[in-house]
Amino acid sequence: MSFAKDSKLQIIEKDIEDADCAQAFLSGLLHASGTITKNSEGMRVDVVTDFKEIFPYLNKLVSRLYGRELSLEISDDYIINKTTYYRIKFPVDISLDILKDCSIIPPSEELIFLSNIDENLIADDETKKAFVKGTYIGCATSSIRLSELGSQSPTTGYHVEFASHKREFLEGLQKILMHFEITSKLSSRKKIFVLYLKDSEAIKDLLALVGAEQSVLDLSDEMAKRDLRNTVNRQVNCINANINKTIEASLKQIQAINFINKKIGLDSLPEDLQEVAVLRLANPQESMDELLKLSTIKLTKSGLNHRFRRILKIADILKGG
Fold it and tell me: What is the pTM of this model?
């Protein structure tokens, strides 16, 4: 199950009891995923969604507000990119009232889908939250993938977005989110507009706002896992870098010692350099710290490094450098 769908399921676990909040929720949902059709029967509003679990929740809400039942249908035409879309159909005889009550069409009843959000529907914090819930269920998507601790598979960043053909609607939604100190950004993508959040803390605030508490905890857990994984990776990279440095230094030292031995013999070296040369040849893979532990010579790490630098210089001179 996707992160976005899981969070939507959490939202519909709680009924909206307040009528004003229910109306605001319905308005947000219709702004996000509503369509209007007009035929010989009259004007009808539908919700097109891939989240079919919203049907019983929405049916109960509309039944409480308008006393009517909704219907759900599916068609092959609604299968896009292997995703099945459903059409939730509202009765024709109440569609016009719903569209007016949700400020989706103007009072003149023209077949115009209004893009702006009616401030009267979201007059207080609770109705604002309800509107965002409806919008979230209607058009929110996310690329967040929860991972298992210790998993080596790559994970995506943090991204939640609302997509719509109506810029004014998303600008109004952005204003509502800013009211709750949630920062988002608006951009265009081909023929649609996208309001998106990439900051993990902002996404957690959004999830808390719409009532997806478990997703807040899941995201916090995911952030901790990724932080731990990144810390471990940095430490491993650091260790590997140190190992590579140790191997490279050891190879240079051994090559210099062997060259000196071939050219003039190790016996020609001063006694203090002979000691470290033999120590290195006997322990080719050890670091400086390990050599100090293995050595019977009382030296500091700086002193040992100094002796090896002298050996390297002698080899360089013998090579004519």
Answer: 0.73
